[in-house]
């Protein structure tokens, strides 16, 4: 059952990071109050919330408290406790449900879901032990990537195997969980589609973003992605298929590879607003965060429109000082910093979005700024 949540009511958010903060800011524009459950006291979302519940994500008493003070509950990341979230759905209004988290927090169930939705994935095998991996790996060949089924992000929890000689490198991954081994896909680009859907089945995609990574961490998202129109159409169609199959409420980021012939292969999904959609705050007529709030609150969605080609650049710990020293030089840059107290190397501290008439000129300006040395 889809409920309408009205301004003045309270949205509960599990997770106090930057995604929760940007959700909260979008919600406050519409007059909502925010409650956040987060283990750390001075979290990015906690800084803008009305109610802060400082406790572990699987703390039953804390989840009950969140249910009591919230009219609707959402979450900002997928590696939360599924059992706790499932119990929460019995006592609170959680329109996204718990199944979406169960499926997407495990690479094995996620891959199976993508295939059932009728979308292409890289060839893969599932192994519970290192011995099972060695017995099956001939089915996908080399090079391949072995990933833990659970946990792991920004390149963590995975190992590239270039040949059989590298096999022992994957042994340690099985200490953490079951693993999946994926055949290497010779892709030309990485892209992502943010698809958003409300409880009435109304569904829209943000413009396709083209992503570049440095050390397995997203560095830049270029919008629109520099791909053929038919590839963009395939990408949006796949994202919509997956959203419909899941009966999605809220947001799903679908990451994909583009092959030489313009076809696509789905890599993975995240059931929340995504780093590659941050550009939408300035560059679209509706941001991924505002659309997410609309979706979970039962509002009608808005068809996204891109105002201008744009580039989003991540600001990691090592970039903060150079960026803040350079603010006066770049009046056209929209600077977002997330309120994190400690700027650690490779920690996501913020992002910059630049709307432009010429992507190549702006890409050159970003490189020449010296803020993001290669």
From TrEMBL:
Residues that bind ATP, according to the entry?
A: 107, 147, 152-158, 182-185, 190, 213, 267-268
Q: What class of enzyme is it?
A: ligase
Q: Which GO terms describe its molecular function?
A: 5-(carboxyamino)imidazole ribonucleotide synthase activity
Is Hydrolase a UniProt keyword of this protein? no
Query: In this protein, which residues make up the domain named ATP-grasp?
Result: 111-297
Keyword vocabulary terms for this entry: ATP-binding, Ligase, Nucleotide-binding, Purine biosynthesis
The protein's annotated catalytic reaction(s) are:
5-amino-1-(5-phospho-beta-D-ribosyl)imidazole + hydrogencarbonate + ATP = 5-carboxyamino-1-(5-phospho-D-ribosyl)imidazole + ADP + phosphate + 2 H(+)
Which Pfam family, any one, appears in the UniProt record?
Answer: RS_preATP-grasp-like
PROSITE patterns, per database record: ATP_GRASP
* InterPro entries tied to this protein: ATP-grasp, ATP-grasp_carboxylate-amine, ATP_grasp_subdomain_1, PreATP-grasp_dom_sf, PurK, PurK_C, PurT/PurK_preATP-grasp, Rudment_hybrid_motif
Q: Does DNA damage count among this protein's keywords?
A: no
Associated pathway: Purine metabolism; IMP biosynthesis via de novo pathway; 5-amino-1-(5-phospho-D-ribosyl)imidazole-4-carboxylate from 5-amino-1-(5-phospho-D-ribosyl)imidazole (N5-CAIR route): step 1/2
Report the EC number(s), separated by commas if there are several. 6.3.4.18
- Family indicated by similarity: Belongs to the PurK/PurT family.
| Record note on quaternary structure | Homodimer.
PANTHER family given in the database record: PHOSPHORIBOSYLAMINOIMIDAZOLE CARBOXYLASE (PTHR11609:SF5), PURINE BIOSYNTHESIS PROTEIN 6/7, PUR6/7 (PTHR11609)
What task does this protein carry out? Catalyzes the ATP-dependent conversion of 5-aminoimidazole ribonucleotide (AIR) and HCO(3)- to N5-carboxyaminoimidazole ribonucleotide (N5-CAIR).
Protein name (record): N5-carboxyaminoimidazole ribonucleotide synthase
Native species of this protein? Solibacillus palustris
Q: What is the lineage of its organism?
A: Bacteria, Bacillati, Bacillota, Bacilli, Bacillales
Give the gene that encodes this protein: purK
């Amino acid at each position: 059952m889809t409920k309408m949540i009205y301004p003045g009511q309270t949205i509960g958010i599990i997770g106090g990071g930057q995604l929760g903060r940007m959700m909260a800011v979008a919600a406050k524009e519409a007059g909502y109050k925010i409650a956040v459950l987060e283990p750390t006291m001075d979290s990015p979302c906690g800084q803008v919330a009305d109610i802060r519940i400082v406790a572990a994500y699987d703390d039953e008493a804390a989840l009950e408290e969140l249910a009591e003070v919230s009219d609707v509950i959402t979450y900002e990341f997928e590696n939360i406790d599924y059992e706790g979230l499932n119990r929460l759905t019995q006592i609170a209004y959680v329109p996204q449900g718990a199944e979406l988290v169960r499926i997407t927090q495990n690479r094995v169930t996620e891959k199976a879901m993508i295939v059932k939705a009728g979308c292409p994935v890289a060839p893969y095998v599932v192994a519970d032990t290192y011995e099972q991996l060695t017995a099956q790996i001939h089915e996908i060949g080399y090079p391949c990537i072995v990933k833990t089924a659970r946990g792991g992000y920004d390149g963590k929890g995975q190992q590239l195997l270039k040949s059989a000689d590298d096999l022992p490198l994957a042994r340690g991954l099985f200490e953490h969980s079951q693993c999946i081994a994926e055949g290497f896909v010779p892709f030309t680009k990485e892209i992502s589609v943010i698809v958003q859907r409300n409880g009435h089945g109304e569904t829209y995609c943000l413009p396709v973003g083209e992503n570049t990574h440095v050390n397995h961490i997203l560095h830049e998202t270029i919008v629109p992605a520099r791909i053929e129109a038919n590839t963009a159409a395939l990408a949006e169609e796949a994202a919509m298929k997956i959203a419909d199959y899941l009966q999605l409420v809220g947001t799903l980021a679908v990451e994909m590879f583009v092959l030489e012939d313009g076809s696509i292969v789905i890599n993975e999904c995240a059931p929340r607003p995504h780093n590659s959609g941050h550009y939408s705050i300035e560059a679209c007529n509706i941001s991924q965060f505002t659309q997410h709030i609309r979706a979970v609150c039962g509002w009608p969605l808005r068809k996204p429109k891109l105002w201008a080609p744009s580039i989003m650049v991540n600001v990691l710990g090592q970039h903060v000082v150079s960026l803040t020293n350079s603010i006066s030089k770049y009046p056209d840059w929209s600077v977002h910093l997330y309120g994190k107290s400690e700027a650690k190397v490779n920690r996501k501290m913020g992002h910059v979005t630049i709307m432009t008439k010429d992507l190549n000129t702006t890409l050159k300006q970003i490189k020449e700024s010296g803020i993001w040395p290669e």
